[in-house]
C-alpha cells in the first residue's frame, strides 16, 4: 500500500495509486446544502484534500479525465449534472506570508490573488482565448474581477474555492493584534476582499463558494463584509467528511498485516495503539463513533509500511506547533482555568452550546461562563465533543493522547521553566522507568516542583493537582502509552504508564498509580510540622495509613484487569501515593503480583 502522507492533491492521489478514503458520495449532498458553504476543521484534518477533490470534480478542463479520476468512486457511479461544469479558481491563504510588517502582509495577499489569476488564465487558455487579464500589483480584487469577466464571456460561471481562509490572519491574531485588527476591521483588506466575493456571488459570475478554515473567529470579525455563508461544520450529513472511521483504520491495518505476513494479533495491537493516540474527534452534537486525525493516521501507516513498526515519535512534528494555539487560549481571561479543567476527566469542561459567531474582542472580554474559549479549543482540535449532560449541555474532553501531550508540555513549560530543575526531574524520571524506585523522583518533586504552588492553591487542591504533577513529570510518549483515568474493566486507575509494544524489548517496567490527597486541615498539621517529620512517621499517622490502604486495595483490583489484558507481557509496578498538602509525599510501591 502507498499512503499520501504530506500529499493533499486529489489528482496525484488518484493517478499515482495512493490510498484514498472515498467521501465523494457527499458531493451531491453538498450541492443541495447551499451555494456558499463554510467548513471548519482543525489543522491537518484533510480539508485541502477535500477541496482538491471538489476542484477536480467541477473543473471543466478535467472532463476527459473524469472516468480515470472518479469512475470507481461513489460519485463516479452516479455523477451530478454539475460535474466538470465550472471554471475553478482556488485561493490558498496558507501561502500568504504573515511574517512581515503590515504593508508587506497586504502586498503578500495581493501577490497571491494576482498569482492565482495568472495561473487561472494559463490553465484555461484554450477556453478563454485572447481575453486579457487585468492586474494591479497593489489591488488583487482587480484580478478577481478580471477572472470572472473572462469566465462569463466564455459561457461558464466560476466555482471559488478558498482554502485555510483564516490561516495568515490567525498567525497575526496570536501575536500581533494591531496588525490583525488593521486587516479585518473597518475597511481592512480581508474584509474588503470578502465583500467583493459576496457581491460577485450575487448573480455576477461566482456561482458557488466553498471555504475551509479552522475557526469562525476571522469570519465573525469580517461578518458585515461576508454574512452569506452557511456553516456546515456541525451538519450531521458532513460530520465525517474529513477524518477516518475506525472501520477504515482496521481495514488498512488488515491489509498491511496480510502484506507483511504478520501474526494474528498484530492488527488488533496496532489498532489499539492508534485508538489511544489518534482517535476521539467528534464534530456533531449527537454522540457517535470518534474519528481519527487523517494526517496522523497516514503518518502512522507510512511508518508501518516502510519500517514495519510504529513511528518512534507518535506526535507528527507538523502538528507540534498547535501548542501555540493552546498558549493563545491560556492567555485569555480564564483560559488557564479551562485548560486545567480539561485535564480532569471526572469534571470535564461544560458549555451550553458551541459559539459560532465570535471574534477576538469576544474572547478578550468573555465572562467566566462564556462558551467562547471552550468553543475555540474545540475548533482548534484541542477539545472535542464527548457527550451531553442531563441538562443537554455539551461536555468537552481532550480527544486522545497526542493532544494530551500538547497540554502536558504546555504545563511543563509553565510550571517547571528552569533548565537545571527540569534536568534533575528528567534524570529522576528516567531512573524510575526502569527501576520502579520512587524515592529519587519524590525528592526532586518535593524540593522543587510541589513548591511552585503557593498558599492560594490550597483552596482548590485535590487529587487532580497531584496527579497532574506526576503526569507532567513522567510523561514519556516515546516509551509509554500514558493515560489519566485509565479504564480497567469497571474501574478507573488514576495514572498508568503502559510500555509501548515495540519498546518491550528494553528494560522498562509498566507502572500504575493511585493517588490520595490530605489537606493540612485534614491532618491538623502545619506545613512546617510536616516538613520536620520523617517519611516513616508520616506514614504511621492513622489517616495517612488509611489512605495508603485504600489506594493499595484499588491497585490490587486494577492489577487483575491489566494482567488479563496483557498476560505475561506485563511487568507491573504499582504505586499508592498520598500527598500531604503540597509539602510531602508518601507512598507504597509493589512489584510483581501482590502477596
Automatic annotation (TrEMBL):
Residues 4-222 form the AAA-ATPase-like domain. InterPro entries: AAA-ATPase-like_dom. This is AAA family ATPase.
Amino acid at each position: 500500500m502507498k499512503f499520501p502522507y504530506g500529499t493533499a492533491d486529489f489528482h496525484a492521489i488518484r493517478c499515482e495509486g495512493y490510498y484514498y478514503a472515498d467521501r465523494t458520495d457527499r458531493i451531491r449532498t453538498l450541492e443541495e446544502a447551499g451555494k456558499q458553504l463554510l467548513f471548519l476543521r482543525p489543522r491537518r484534518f484533510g480539508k485541502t484534500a477535500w477541496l482538491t477533490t471538489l476542484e477536480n470534480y467541477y473543473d471543466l478542463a478535467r472532463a476527459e479525465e473524469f472516468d480515470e479520476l472518479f469512475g470507481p468512486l461513489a460519485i463516479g457511479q452516479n455523477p451530478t449534472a454539475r460535474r466538470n461544469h465550472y471554471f475553478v479558481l482556488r485561493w490558498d491563504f496558507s501561502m500568504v506570508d504573515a511574517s512581515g510588517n503590515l504593508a508587506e502582509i497586504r502586498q503578500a495577499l495581493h501577490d497571491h490573488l494576482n498569482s492565482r489569476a495568472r495561473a487561472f488564465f494559463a490553465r484555461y487558455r484554450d477556453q478563454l482565448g485572447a481575453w486579457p487579464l487585468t492586474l494591479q500589483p497593489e489591488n488583487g480584487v482587480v484580478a478577481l474581477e478580471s477572472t470572472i469577466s473572462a469566465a462569463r464571456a466564455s459561457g461558464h460561471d466560476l466555482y471559488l474555492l478558498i482554502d485555510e481562509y483564516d490561516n495568515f490572519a490567525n498567525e497575526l491574531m496570536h501575536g500581533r493584534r494591531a496588525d490583525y485588527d488593521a486587516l479585518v476591521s473597518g475597511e481592512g483588506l480581508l474584509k474588503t476582499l470578502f465583500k467583493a466575493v459576496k457581491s460577485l456571488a450575487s448573480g455576477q459570475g461566482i456561482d458557488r463558494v466553498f471555504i475551509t478554515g479552522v475557526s469562525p473567529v476571522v469570519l465573525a470579525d469580517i461578518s458585515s463584509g461576508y454574512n452569506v455563508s452557511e456553516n456546515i461544520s456541525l451538519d450531521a450529513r458532513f460530520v465525517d467528511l474529513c477524518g477516518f472511521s475506525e472501520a477504515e483504520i482496521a481495514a488498512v491495518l488488515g491489509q498491511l498485516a496480510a502484506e507483511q505476513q504478520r501474526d494474528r494479533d498484530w492488527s488488533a495491537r496496532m489498532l489499539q495503539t492508534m485508538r489511544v493516540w489518534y482517535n476521539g474527534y467528534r464534530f456533531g452534537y449527537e454522540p457517535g463513533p470518534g474519528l481519527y486525525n487523517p494526517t496522523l493516521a497516514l503518518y502512522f501507516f507510512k511508518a508501518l509500511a516502510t519500517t514495519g513498526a510504529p513511528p518512534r515519535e507518535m506526535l507528527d512534528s507538523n502538528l507540534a506547533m498547535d501548542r501555540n494555539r493552546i498558549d493563545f487560549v491560556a492567555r485569555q481571561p480564564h483560559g488557564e482555568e479551562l485548560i486545567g479543567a480539561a485535564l480532569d476527566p471526572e469534571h470535564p469542561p461544560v458549555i451550553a452550546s458551541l459559539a459560532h459567531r465570535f471574534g477576538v474582542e469576544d474572547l478578550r472580554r468573555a465572562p467566566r461562563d462564556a462558551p467562547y474559549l471552550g468553543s475555540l479549543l474545540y475548533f482548534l482540535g484541542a477539545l472535542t465533543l464527548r457527550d451531553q449532560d442531563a441538562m443537554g449541555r455539551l461536555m468537552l474532553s481532550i480527544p486522545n493522547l497526542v493532544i494530551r501531550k500538547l497540554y502536558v508540555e504546555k504545563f511543563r513549560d509553565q510550571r517547571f521553566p528552569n533548565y537545571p530543575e527540569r534536568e534533575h526531574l528528567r534524570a529522576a524520571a528516567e531512573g524510575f522507568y526502569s527501576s520502579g524506585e520512587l524515592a529519587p523522583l519524590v525528592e526532586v518533586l518535593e524540593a522543587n516542583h510541589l513548591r511552585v504552588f503557593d498558599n492560594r492553591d490550597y483552596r482548590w487542591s485535590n487529587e487532580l493537582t497531584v496527579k497532574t504533577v506526576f503526569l507532567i513529570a513522567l510523561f514519556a510518549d516515546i516509551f509509554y502509552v500514558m493515560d489519566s483515568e485509565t479504564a480497567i474493566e469497571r474501574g478507573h486507575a488514576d495514572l498508568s504508564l503502559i510500555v509501548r509494544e515495540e519498546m518491550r524489548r528494553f528494560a522498562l517496567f509498566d507502572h500504575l498509580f493511585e493517588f490520595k490527597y490530605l489537606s493540612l486541615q485534614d491532618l491538623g498539621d502545619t506545613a512546617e510540622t510536616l516538613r520536620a517529620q520523617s517519611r516513616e512517621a508520616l506514614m504511621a499517622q492513622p489517616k495517612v495509613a488509611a489512605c495508603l490502604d485504600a489506594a493499595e486495595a484499588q491497585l490490587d483490583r486494577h492489577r487483575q484487569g491489566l494482567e488479563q489484558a496483557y498476560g505475561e507481557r506485563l511487568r507491573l509496578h504499582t504505586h499508592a501515593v498520598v500527598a500531604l498538602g503540597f509539602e510531602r509525599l508518601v507512598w507504597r510501591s509493589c512489584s510483581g503480583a501482590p502477596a
